[in-house]
Amino acid sequence: MVVALSVLGVIAMMAVPMLNLPVRAWSEAAVRRDLAAELRLAYVRMDDELRRALPGSVRHRQLGARHWLEFLTVRASTRARAAPAAAAPVCPLACAAPGNNDSLEPSCAESCFTTLGPWVGDPVQPGQDWLVVDPRMPGSAWDPYVGGSAVVAGGIKSRITAVTALPDGSRVDIAPHAFPSLAASRRVWAVAEPVSFQCDPGSSTLLRHSGYAIAAAQPTAFAGATTTTLAGDIAACDFVVGSDLLHPPRQRVSVRMRVQRPAGAGVGAESMESLWQWSLREP
Q: How far, rounded to the nearest angstrom, does the alpha carbon of residue 129 sit from its chain's CA centroid?
């Protein structure tokens, strides 16, 4: 009996490590699954937001290992009229000859124009949304952030004050402003608010900031803003923004992100990395 118990003890000592292998493999697979879920969640949230970003408004800032990606969220878009309407004008005369009141003209203190067709997107919110015309890229003469939350001479945005449905489009009233130029497509945008993604490996988080005012300089602090955590376990990230100088306002956005769990409880350190890219252009 003593011999048998001794043999069984030796066998048990040899079997325990072997029995631990499936448990460890399951634990490591669970960690990898959680990391993949973190990356997937981060991608889904960023993809949903960047699909509604105003082309020409994406900008990037880096301080050490921390990165910020900011853009203006589009509520809706449409095209401004360029010629007299078939029906009687609905806007007061501004700078054009009589009969062309409803067109949107550059270098003219416009306060009203009509669109060709309806707005495409969500309902425009007068008093909150901005009309943005001919955005190019941050840092250029057509920077949509110029002036911050104020209408300034030479800027490309003005506050929308009213939107009235018409049989063939909409009448749009804005705070009086002279836009320096119009895009060849006559595309105009209703912009809701700025949004920032903050990747901070120091706190292992990917954050989203919203509900703050447009600023000329890209912010890194968001007092009073609404901040939500999109993902955790962030170990490293890199944001790259490129603008197509030949075809503004096209932009390319690349995001590289790595998530990591340290070793512990018999499980080794695990990490996972993804690279995502977006192309922003006029619809």
A: 16
**Can you list the alpha helix ranges (DSSP code H) found in the chain?**
2-50
Closest among 270, 275, 180, 179 to 233, alpha carbons compared: 270
Query: Measured between alpha carbons, how far is 205 from 279 in angstroms, rounded to an integer?
Result: 25
Assess if residue 15 is contained within a domain.
no
Q: Is residue 6 part of a domain?
A: no
Q: What is the pLDDT of residues 228-282, one digit of tens each?
A: 999 989 999 999 999 888 888 999 999 999 999 887 656 667 889 999 999 998 8
Give the separation between CA 151 and CA 143, rounded to whole angstroms. Answer: 13
d(CA 174, CA 159): 6
Same domain, 141 and 251: no
Answer yes or no: are the C-beta atoms of 259 and 235 closer than 8 Å: yes
Is the model's pTM score more than 0.90? Answer: no
173 plus 108 within the same structural domain: yes
